Predict the 3D structure of the following.
Amino acid sequence: MTTPLHALVADLRGRFTIPRKKAADALVQMGAAAVPSLIETLQHKNTEAQEAAADALVRIGTPDALAAVEQWKNR
């Protein structure tokens, strides 16, 4: 069974912009629980998904989220 987190991550990694933005907003609302999945998305083949994940991580703002974004920027 797919959890809401997994469904949102799938939308975030998808190719369509509007579902991606809605998923990012919902993942930000989930907060720290979404951080591991968002960090994984920084390595996804879809660069738009990577950027959406980075934005969501910054908006969540936990130390591990911000560190992951810094590492992603400096790759």
